[in-house]
Amino acid sequence: MPIAHHPLIEEFAEHRDTIHELKMNNAHFRRLAHEYEGIDKSIFRAEQGIEVVNDAYLDSIKKERLHLKDLIYSMLRTK
Questions:
Q1: How many other C-beta atoms are found inside a 10 Å radius of the C-beta of residue 26?
Q2: pLDDT value of position 79
Q3: pTM here?
């Protein structure tokens, strides 16, 4: 199975316009989205073998990505 990124725009395709609006106008959302995207890229690089990380660290950042995704989704739903 190919390994893929999980960009917010694909994870929440139905909220594309809201994501753009919040990134432009909400500093907290912008920070969360930036952090999510950075962690997603780190996970992708680790899973591709580009960066070597231990399993505990990979599990930890996957949990953090999921937590950020939950926070972001909550903000999208209440917008």
A1: 14
A2: 82
A3: 0.91
